[in-house]
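quick one, 379 residues, struct below
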Amino acid sequence: MIGTILFDVDGVLLSEEHYFDASALTVWELLISKNYLALSPEKYKTDYSPTEIKVVRETVFGKNDEVLKLMKSRGLNANWDMIYLSFGHQFIHLLSQIKENEKERINIWMQEPINRDVLLEIGKVLGNYDISLDFDRFVPDFERSTETKQELFNYLNLLAKEKLGVHTEIFSGISTLWLVCEHVSQEWYVGDDNVEKSTGRHSVQLGKKGFLANETTLAAKEDIDELFTFLKNSGVKIGIGTGRPELETIQPFHHLDWLKHFDINHIVTADDVQTAEKELIERRSLSKPDPFTYIVGLKGRGTSSKDCINTPLPIENGEEVLVVGDSLADLLAARKMGCKFAAVLTGLSGKDARSTFEKHEADYILDTVLEVRGIIGKN
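---
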């Protein structure tokens, strides 16, 4: 008997497409803008047409999003992590082209935090050489690895050793460079009007409109509204466990008039995860597939992070909780909790994801989130 349903957002309720667009634009900006590596500042702008965005995304992630799909298949769920991995890989490739002449500088760069000032310094050095980008290298390089989730960051350290001859731990964890990537990403996604509220920092580059006011639902918003009403009338408690920041969750839900269905205490976002991670003595990731997001969604944000992290797994009466997600990371989190899992085929891979979910024995595989209604109807 399902008594609680915890929904992911991207790929389930709202489309991820704009997030992936913003991710590609972020990687592109970090590489070409005068504010970062400045490889082709004349090609950079802040207002791309949909056609131009499509070209940038195909350049960075492949025509069929091969790069994104590989990262998703390894349990990487956060767009910030995907940006960091993609940019970090290209960054190593660029340095590999100047290693014979700049070995000493590369050794120094690989041992210190890489902030924007360091990127500007590196960009000036790169500008003295005939170098090229090569996004096609990502998939072959990472197919040689078996790492998953944040362990993929550590694989960047191994690639630095292989391609640069430098031993480093600089890519591990939530590094200074990761934070640079995150901030540029937020500029693109939330736009000038919201970036300071989102990040606590001013924009480095103004002129970005953002995608917040242009969210796309994965079923008619009225039909999803009716689903939430049906679940509540059926006595089912509902909550949210998303990798989105709070602003990017609450604001769209408010615009779509969905917020009325939820207790804000059971809407858990990336902000809650980051706050909890900062409280840890030993820094580690609590984002999916770690079950922390969904445990807080179940217990409520009033529960201490420590209690949520230390919750015995599988949870008691886990069969009464249904997690609805679109990714392997969601499934793995649900499995750790001992919960039921419904896979929705509206994420990045669409219906092609069915075989993955069948392999991992998802309890339910749904074409759209609206089919959750049928699960509850069988209770």
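The longest helix spans residues 79-96.
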